[in-house]
C-alpha cells in the first residue's frame, strides 16, 4: 500500500502476532480504497481474553474503532469478523442510490424464490422478514435484513479479493449466480484496488 495505511492495529498481543500478519493485515489490505474514503481511519483492538461479544464498533469524527474478541478464535475467522464490522459501518455510509439499489436487489431475490443467504445472521433476518405478510411489510425488519445481508456480502466481497474462496451450496446459502450478482454490485460501488481481482 502506498502512503500511510488507513488502519492500525496497535500493540497486538504477542500470541496474536502471527494471526495479524498472516490473516488480519492481508484482509484489511484487500479492502478497496473507496471504502476507506467513506469510513475514515480505522483502529482495530484485539481482545484475547474472555469477553461478552465477538465484535463491536463505534464510528465518530472520522475514526472507526473496532474491537475483536480474539480468544479461542481461528485467525481466518478473526479477519472475517473484522471485514463484517467494516461492512456494518459501511452500510451507514451508503448513498441514497446505493441503498435503493441494494433493496431492489434483495427484492428481486425474494421474488425469484431465493431462500438462502450470505451467512447465518442475514438468513435469520431474512426469515423474520418473510415469515408472514405482516412481517414483510415491516420497515424495521427490512432494514435489519438489508443491513445484515449487505455486511455479510461486503465481507465476502473483500474475502474474494483477498484470496480464492469456495462457494458454499445448499438451501441455506445463496445460489452462485445470485451471489455473483451481489458481488458485482458491490464491486461497482467500491472497485478493487490495483493488483486485486474479484474473479480469477
Structure explained in plain terms:
This protein folds into 2 domains: 7-91; 96-189, no CATH class. The chain starts with 6 loop residues before the first strand and ends in an 11-residue tail after the last helix. The protein has helices at 17-29, 33-39, 75-91, 96-111, 120-130, 133-136, 139-162, 176-189, and strands at residues 7-8, 41-47, 55-60, 63-69. With 200 residues, the chain is α/β, with parallel strands linked by helices. A hairpin with a 2-residue loop joins strand 3 (55-60) and strand 4.
How much helix is in the residues? 40-55%
- Spatially, the strands of the biggest sheet line up as 1-2-4-3
Kindly provide the radius of gyration, computed on alpha-carbon positions and rounded to a whole number of angstroms.
17 Å
Order of helices and strands: EHHEEEHHHHHH
Amino acid at each position: 500500500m502506498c502512503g500511510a495505511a488507513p488502519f492500525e492495529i496497535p500493540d497486538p498481543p504477542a500470541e496474536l502476532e502471527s494471526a495479524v500478519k498472516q490473516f488480519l493485515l492481508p484482509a484489511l489490505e484487500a479492502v478497496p480504497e473507496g471504502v476507506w474514503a467513506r469510513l475514515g481511519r480505522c483502529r482495530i483492538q484485539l481482545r484475547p481474553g474472555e469477553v461478552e461479544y465477538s465484535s463491536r464498533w463505534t464510528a465518530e469524527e472520522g475514526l472507526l474503532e473496532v474491537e475483536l474478541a480474539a480468544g479461542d478464535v481461528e485467525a481466518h475467522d478473526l479477519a472475517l469478523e473484522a471485514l463484517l464490522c467494516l461492512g456494518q459501518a459501511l452500510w451507514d455510509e451508503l448513498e441514497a442510490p446505493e441503498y435503493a439499489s441494494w433493496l431492489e436487489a434483495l427484492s428481486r431475490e425474494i421474488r425469484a424464490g431465493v431462500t438462502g443467504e450470505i451467512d447465518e445472521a442475514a438468513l435469520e433476518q431474512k426469515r423474520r422478514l418473510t415469515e408472514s405478510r405482516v412481517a414483510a411489510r415491516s420497515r424495521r425488519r427490512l432494514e435489519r435484513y438489508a443491513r445484515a445481508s449487505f455486511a455479510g456480502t461486503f465481507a465476502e466481497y473483500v474475502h474474494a479479493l483477498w484470496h480464492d474462496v469456495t462457494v458454499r451450496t445448499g438451501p441455506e446459502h445463496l445460489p452462485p449466480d445470485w451471489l455473483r450478482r451481489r458481488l458485482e454490485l458491490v464491486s461497482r460501488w467500491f472497485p478493487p484496488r490495483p493488483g486485486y481481482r474479484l474473479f480469477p
